[in-house]
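Message: A physicist's question: would you kindly supply an amino acid chain plus fold tokens?
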Amino acid sequence: MTTGNPQTQQSTGRPARPARSEGAKGVMYGVGAYGWWGMMPLYFILLLPANSIEIVANRVVWSVVFCAIIITVARGWGKIRTAAGNKRILGTLAVAGVLIVINWLTYVFAVTTGNTVEASLGYFINPLVSVLIGVIVLKEKLRPLQWTAVGVGFAAVVVMTMSYGKLPWIALVLAFSFGSYGFVKNRVGGKVDAITSLSIETAVLTPFAVAAMVAMSLAGQATLFSMGAGHFWLMAASGIITAVPLLFFGASASRLSMTGIGLLQFMTPVVQFIIAITILGEPMSTERWIGFIIVWAALGLLIADMLISYRRTARLRKMAH
């Protein structure tokens, strides 16, 4: 008696491989999403001499176009109408759209002006900001390790301020805008899927993005049609480059625990940091290294707390059963 796929066995002479577990698929999708986001600085460098406003305006418009294609193919317009017809969901996603465009503008500005290292710092700090939002807005109580991590993170910002000779505003704007974006999106919960959410967020911003593109064109500052076909298609590809990792993330989040997603998210700033100091050649003074090491220590405490909490919860579940 044979098992598995008979056709596979006959053609190869070996039993068919078992299907990958959902957890393994979740990790693969997560690595794809966070790895993709980590590589984004290289893409934005290719778009020069376009400035950050033009790049983000195009990103918004082409994201809407790409999302419309996906929704049409997937027959998802009913979900769009349902979400847009709910004033609370529409309002929440509009706020999320404003926060994410602030994040995008700051991030692209950082990359195109030689501040990718500081941008990566922002995403390293982001988990600490998320914890702070939980305390300030949701009145959550922190565990001792979490308080220690927040304190160490604050010390890192002080060190970085001394290193840069100014407040690292790029890192802080990125951390707080993305942390706030995550909080606002959490208010929507599972009521809308990733592509519906992105579609509405960018659709709300599209009139402003189109206005910015027209204004830059009239002022002779637009590069979309003046730098050749290659540049045009690179700009147009921003829709795909924005939507695909988000879809990967959605596929990962539906298969992994919050702990798993939390651990994978550190991949993005690590890749950004490596690209900044190796490929882009951004300088790292001794003071900056010290600041980053302190941030990494804070993240280490958060990860340790996350794992301890996860194991404790898993143990309690086993005892309950």
